[in-house]
Every structure is written in structure tokens, then in C-alpha cells.
Write a structure and sequence with these properties.
alpha/beta, Aminopeptidase, eight-stranded mixed β-sheet, 28% helix, 2 domains
Length: 447
């Protein structure tokens, strides 16, 4: 990777309308350029060719149904893995889903995982990108009819697969898992199994990116057409927050600085640094109104997770039987997807995964000293685990601002900032000599 002079970016001012940095990492930019809209379209159309990918559909046929789809996804991941010098392993994450909501009998299910092992054996960090490969029509229990699912969610699956193809050829200190999960339409069953498995096996998942419905640029009813904007959903109050943590959050005003919100801000800053004509919209909700997705089970297990979704949805395409009524086409067909837009979303994901997996780990025990009354802010922290950083950024923003507005570079593990903690919010992130930043950590009060 090309080195970045830290003194050049020692103080970085970020505006709320456009976040920029002085210099891009040449290796990451090359990967961004390799993400192909043609490959993405080919993946989407191949997934559509299986007629239906309903979770309860045929698992025996080699050409139709959920079984044929997952076998093809696994074979593609294995093809990409051939370029990884043995670092990428592909596996089925198999489980039996008991009879229950939207599952009429105990059903064997399989997620597909391509695991790109980190090169640093002491680095236990894991970063996950996911899309769901199952599809449906109007009746959620209809396992026979044509359910193309081009945008929902062959588009998200294609993002995961295309990034696996590009990134398998590269080395990263941390581990990256490229997932295609099943059972989303029946009840988030596939992602729930992986999240529970991760918790039971002690996976250190630092960030999970869920891409669901990322291929349409037209808004039904509004008539809006936007191939520039993409939404990132993030929870404010962590799903696993306990009473003590809630009391601290209330006392310091940290309701907008959960780990998921920091990941969302990081996604906006890093993605807009590399991807042209991209406007990342931060949506301060875990998901769309009264709806859910495959990031939710990870949040419920205490992991930092966000959902990435197109800006304007066309509900004539989602969960619809294929038909034409009064001159209006219904159904999630591949001809209506915008593959250049999916390419842009894939590039956005790549920049985040690459920067995080190359960066140092997060600083530990980040705190604001509260032993005296002062109009300055004193912060201290411990060095991250693993690779030593070149330094740290202290991030600052006004309490009304959604984005970090200033970055102050320091080399030690403390900082005395001439701005009041009563009027500003702060965080700390580690950075290496090449300019790769960790996720920001919101400080706790300490004496």
C-alpha cells in the first residue's frame, strides 16, 4: 500500500456536506476500480435463473430452487478462493430450522461462507459482509412460482460475491467473511444461526455490513430517481445495553454515539473518500420503519452491525407475483435493476472492509477525565491490542452535528483539547503509517 504522510493529515477538517481526505491508498483504489458492474449483473441474472430461491423450495434439482442456488454460490466462492493461495476457505453453515413462523416443518438450511483468513495469526478481528440469497413472491409460503429476487436480494448477494472475487487476491491482517445467508424472508433464520454460532465460538466480530435491497434507483409514487444516494441504518441504543451502560449513556449524552453509529459515520467518511458520485445518507434507525434485516441478529448478540439499502424503494418490485396490471409491471425482475448503482454500493463496502482490516485495532479504555471543572477536555486511552499504531486521531464535533468535524493527530495515549466537553462530543481512533483508521471509540467518564 502507498504510504501517506501523517503530518499532511494531522489536522483534518470535515464538512457535513462533503467529507474528503488529502490522499487515497493506491492499493484500495485499485481494488475499487476492479469491482465490475458486468460481473455483478452476471451474478444477479444467474441467481434469477434458478426460478425461485425460496428457503423451502427444491434442494434436489441441479437447475432450480434454493439447493441449486446455494451450490452454485459455493462453487463460485471456491473459484474465487483459488486465487487466495489457500487463505480463503469456503463452507456451508448448515443447520436445522425447527417448525415455526413461516416454516411449516423442520427444514435443513445452509448459509454459504467464504472466509478470507487474516495473515496476522495474533489478530483475531473479523469483519463480515452479507446479503441474503433467498427470494419470495406475494405469498411468503409460495415455494413454486417464479420468484426472481433480483434486487431483494440477489443484489446484496452479488455485492458479497464480487468483493470476495476482488479481495481474495489480496492479504489483510484481519479476517474477512463474505456471506450469503438463507431464510431472511422467513424470519432472519440464516443470519440468526451465524450470529449465535459466532457468539458461542467467541468470534471477535468488529463490524458487520448487511447489504439488502441495493439495486434499484427509482422511488415508487415519488417518481424520484437517484443513483447517487445510499442509506446506512444504525441503531442508537445498543440492543444488549444493560442498566449501568444506559445510565452512563444518559449522563454523557451518548445516545447518538453507539458503536453502530460510529461504524455508520466511518462508512460515510471512508466510502466518500474513494467512490465518486456517492452520497451516504445516515439513517438513525436500526432499520426501515417497523422492518428488520440480517444485521439485527448480530446486534442482538452484541456485535456492531449496520444495514445498507438503496435510497428509494420500488414496492411494485418487492415481494410481488410476476404480472402486469393496468400497464404496470410487477415483480423483482433483473431488467429493472441498476447494475452501475450496485457496483457503486459494492465499492462503498470494499473501502470500509479494506480500511478496517488493514488498520490497527481500536484504542482501549478510552475515557474523558472528570476530576476537575474545566473548559478544556482531557482524554486518555490505552494502546490497541496487536500492531502498534503510528498515532491516534481525536475526533470532535458539535453536539448538534451528525458528522465528525475535526481530527487532531497525536502520537501519545492522551490529549488535552482546548474545547469543552460540555459543548462538543469526542472520540478516538488509531491510525497506522499508511493512514488506515480504526473505528472511532466514544469515551467514558473516568477519574
Amino acid at each position: 500500500m502507498k504510504r501517506i504522510s501523517l503530518f499532511i493529515i494531522s489536522i483534518l477538517t470535515i464538512s457535513a456536506s462533503a467529507q474528503t481526505t488529502v490522499k487515497q491508498d493506491a492499493g484500495i483504489k485499485q481494488m475499487v476500480d476492479e469491482v465490475s458492474s458486468k460481473n455483478i449483473e452476471a451474478i444477479v441474472r444467474k441467481l434469477v435463473s434458478f426460478k425461485t430461491r425460496h428457503t423451502l423450495s427444491d434442494t434436489v434439482s441441479k437447475t432450480e430452487g434454493v439447493g441449486a442456488a446455494r451450490n452454485w454460490i459455493k462453487a463460485e466462492y471456491e473459484r474465487y478462493a483459488a486465487a487466495s493461495n489457500g487463505r480463503m476457505k469456503v463452507e456451508f453453515d448448515a443447520f436445522i430450522q425447527p417448525q415455526g413462523n413461516r416454516v411449516d416443518k423442520p427444514t435443513p438450511m445452509k448459509n454459504v461462507l467464504a472466509i478470507l483468513k487474516g495473515t496476522d495469526t495474533t489478530d483475531k478481528r473479523i469483519y463480515i459482509i452479507s446479503g441474503h440469497y433467498d427470494s419470495r413472491v406475494t405469498d411468503v409460503m409460495n415455494i413454486k412460482d417464479f420468484a426472481p429476487g433480483a434486487v431483494d436480494d440477489a443484489s446484496g448477494t452479488a455485492v458479497s460475491m464480487e468483493l470476495a472475487r476482488v479481495m481474495a487476491k489480496r492479504s489483510f491482517p484481519a479476517t474477512i467473511i463474505f456471506m450469503a445467508v438463507v431464510g431472511e424472508e422467513q424470519g432472519l433464520y440464516g443470519s440468526t444461526n451465524v450470529a449465535k454460532r459466532a457468539k458461542a465460538e467467541g468470534w471477535q466480530i468488529d463490524a458487520m455490513l448487511n447489504n439488502d435491497i441495493v439495486g434499484n434507483t427509482y422511488g415508487m409514487e415519488t417518481g424520484l430517481k437517484d443513483n447517487r444516494s445510499v442509506r446506512v441504518f444504525s441503531e442508537g441504543v445498543p440492543a444488549v445495553e444493560n442498566e449501568k451502560q444506559a445510565a452512563t449513556r444518559n449522563s454523557v449524552g451518548g445516545e447518538n454515539d453507539s458503536p453502530a453509529r460510529e461504524l455508520a459515520r466511518y462508512t460515510k467518511e471512508i466510502a466518500e473518500r474513494y467512490v465518486e458520485q456517492l452520497d451516504v445518507k445516515l439513517i438513525y434507525r436500526r432499520d426501515r420503519y417497523l422492518r428488520g434485516g440480517d444485521h439485527t441478529p448480530f446486534s442482538q448478540q452484541g456485535y456492531t452491525a449496520i444495514r445498507i439499502t438503496e435510497m428509494n424503494e420500488d414496492f411494485n418490485r418487492q415481494h410481488q407475483d410476476i404480472r402486469k396490471e393496468n400497464g404496470v409491471d410487477y415483480g423483482d425482475l433483473p431488467d429493472f435493476a441498476d447494475y452501475d448503482y450496485i457496483q457503486k454500493v459494492a465499492r462503498m463496502n470494499l473501502t470500509v472492509l479494506a480500511n478496517l482490516s488493514l488498520a490497527p485495532s481500536e484504542p482501549q479504555n478510552v475515557g474523558i477525565l472528570t476530576s476537575g471543572l474545566t473548559n478544556k477536555t482531557q482524554l486518555k486511552w490505552d494502546a490497541p491490542k496487536g500492531k502498534a499504531p503510528a498515532g491516534y486521531y481525536v475526533l470532535m464535533r458539535e453536539t448538534i452535528s451528525p458528522f465528525w468535524e475535526k481530527k487532531f493527530y497525536v502520537t501519545g495515549t492522551s490529549a488535552n483539547i482546548g474545547y469543552s466537553k460540555d459543548n462538543y462530543l469526542f472520540a478516538v481512533q488509531a491510525v497506522d503509517a499508511d493512514g488506515h483508521e480504526s473505528l472511532p471509540v466514544f469515551p467514558k467518564p473516568v477519574r
